[in-house]
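Follow-up to my post from last week.
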Amino acid sequence: DIQMTQSPSTLSASVGDKVTITCRASQSISSWLAWYQQKPGKAPKLLIYKASSLESGVPSRFSGSGSGTEFTLTISSLQPDDFATYYCQQYDTYPYTFGQGTKLEIK
Amino acid sequence: EVQLVESGGGLVQPGRSLRLSCAASGFTFDDYAMHWVRQAPGKGLEWVSGIRSNSGRIAYADSVKGRFSISRDNAKNSLYLQMNSLRTEDTALYYCAKDDGSGSYVFDYWGQGTLVTVSS
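User reply:
Got it. Predicted complex:
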């Protein structure tokens, strides 16, 4: 199975900060990577697909990049609504695995 | 508006069975693959199973293969997950998720989940 490793596991930041979350795959997944946001008690929400394509309705402060084995999710200017847990997911190879999550906390 | 509403969760003893349902609305159900994704309490996400729009292709995670069975009824806009031989490690919130249309296992809409607790 392809292992997806996110770093950091927890990130403390302030409103207005630029933050970056990294996701590494144990083997190349081309650009077949998605990012999700999950708030406590809520279902995940799709933010980014195909590594860098922004899902409709997602604010443009979110962006994704990378290919192969290393990917990043960047939030250009944190808003109060962005404090949540973020997951990456590879969909290159069965089984379609998720990272362990990065919890973004208010500093 | 896309809506996915799961039901059928509950407390069940190890070795017993449970059937989850997902009622879909707000989109043309039989045009899209559908999936089940679970989340153990306080843990991350795990894809469980997926089914193509015409049920022509079905896939399972190794952790549930041979015990769980996914199906759909396009006439009823419904997705199902039959879970047999349940184990304590199957305890989780089970989400129904819609494929984004590319058939590539990207999940663009999720239900709110139904909780399955396996315990004696």
